[in-house]
Design a protein that fits this description.
By secondary structure, this protein is mainly alpha-helical. It is 56% helix and 8% strand. It has one domain. A two-stranded antiparallel ribbon has the order 1-2.
């Protein structure tokens, strides 16, 4: 199914909305797993989400692998 986007701007807006919604979904997933995290701001070069406890790193990695399996 193709998107009917009239302008280049429409395509950019669509991609930004998808990205925003994906980050929101990941934040909700992390919260449901008891992982303390927050959305970053100002186009942080380190990424879109900050994880506060280093000890959660492996758990976060496993969750992201599961998401990739579902959506790829």
């Amino acid at each position: 199914m193709g998107l009917n986007l009239e302008t280049d701007e429409d395509g950019l807006i669509y991609k930004l909305r998808v990205h925003r919604d994906l980050v929101t979904k990941v934040l909700k997933l992390l919260k449901s797993e008891g992982i303390s995290s927050e959305r970053t701001r100002n186009n942080d070069p380190n990424g879109d989400i900050i994880i506060f406890r280093v000890s959660d790193r492996n758990k976060v990695h496993r969750l992201m692998q599961k998401l990739k399996e579902v959506y790829n």
